[in-house]
Request: fold
Amino acid sequence: MASHRALTARAMARAMLAGPATERSLSARLQACLGRRSTWTAELAERCARWPAEHWWRLNPRSLGRWIEQLESYHAAWNADEPPRVRHYIQRARTTMPPAPLGLDHLALPLWPHAGALAEGLDITPAGLWRLARPAAWQRRDALAQQHYRFHLLPKRSGGYRLLEVPEPHLMALQRRLLGLLLAVLPPHEAAIGFVRGRSLRDHAAAHASQPVLLKFDLCDFFASVRASRVHALFTTLGYGDEVARQLTALCTVATPEPVLARLRADGSLGWTQAQRHRDAHLAQGAPTSPALANLCAFGLDLRLDGLARAFGAHYTRYADDLVLSGPASLRAAAARIETWVARIALDEGFALNHRKTRVAAASRRQQVCGVVVNEHLNLPRADFDRLKAQLHHCLRQGPAAANREAHPAWREHLRGRVAWAAQLNPAKAARLQRLFEQIRWPD
Reply:
């Protein structure tokens, strides 16, 4: 619990942040807050008035209050005959925001200087916003029936499980609104391919076609590794105040409840490290805002790995947690050094490599990027092509229902999508698949 001195310093900080940062205004608000004028508050106002405007915009009552607590003059004031005492609380919400960071000043970011403006912009009541933006410690203790997320386990092809944390419809609608108003407007790094409008998995694979050497790396628990502190830092960098940034962060992150973690740990579905990542507030895999936020929070990772790739004469792209570098034959001899650098950069940026999935592939071997063969040109793996061709033949001979062994609810659309994907990679080979698909007699 905060001490009397800390609460007094925070009240002074709120008064100082409630208006213009000129010496006269700061001194007047401090006098109104404490009920009297003193030498040390006048010196405090004079000192703070010299700070640049950019510094003022990054402050909040908590950070400024902590700074005031550390001042020698503040400690001396408490040892005087009449220690500081708050007479009036000045809590005036900001009505303006600082300019967007360099490079983003041409974007029309939403104007949300305070919590009321945020609630109005998202078309929700302030009380509703408060319910959805409660601190993670409160959220974690709620009963499962009162959680705003539903938790599901999805088996991975490579083994193990992926925890899906899907927002309830009322929260998902709010997150989609936030995605359209703000997150979709912000550009990620050029190397980020996944979940970016106008970029596709085909672009990720095409960037590494016909290369002598291919290096592939994989990140552990990509979404869960992006903690709430990084999301909060992103929103404050965009110019949003501490209160608004905290509420935006709470809307987009989740702290997995202890009963869920305990059950998954008991079943062996989640390892200890995975459970620790999910215990803290993090991006939920299943929320519509998570892909865009993950790309934005990984900007530093992409920037540094792109620079590393250029230093070796290579090219780098990332599709979610899949990192790929490709380039000249010299990459093969330097693969171990590059893996060490990639792992170190990932750790610096808050991520971790899954070293078991690191792959080095020369042009003499089959090179794949996210299931696409890229040796000479883009192509489906031979096994995938033959399997799809066999399924189409089965549909022709015995009927679509008999061929649907996995009980796909939309079997026709599933096959059509796979044929269309093959056509994007190799139109000539996919033409045979398209002819087979067109010959299938589907029930009315």
The two ends are 69 Å apart (CA to CA).
